[in-house]
Amino acid sequence: MKIIVLKFGGTSVGSIQRIKKVAKIIKSYSKNYRVIVLSSAMSGTTNNLIKMSQKISENFPDNEYDTLVSAGEQISCSLLAGQLLSNGIKSRSWMGWQVPILTEGKHKFSRIKYINRTKILKFLKSGGIPIIAGFQGVDKKLNITTIGRGGSDSSAIMVAKFFKADRCVIYTDVEGIYTTDPNKLNSAKKIQNISYEEMLEMASLGSKVMQPDSIQDARLNRINIEVKSSFVHKKGTLITKRKNIVNNKIITGISSTDNDAKVTLLGVKDRPGIAASIFKPLSQNSINVDMVVQNISSDGKETDLTFTIKSYDLNKTKKLINKNKKISFKKMIFDKNVSKVSIIGVGMITTPGVTFRMFQALARKNINIQVISTSEIKISVLIKKRNVIKAIKCLHQEFNLDK
Ligand code: ADP
Ligand code: ASP
Ligand code: MG
Question: Domain for residue 240, yes or no?
Answer without folding.
Answer: no
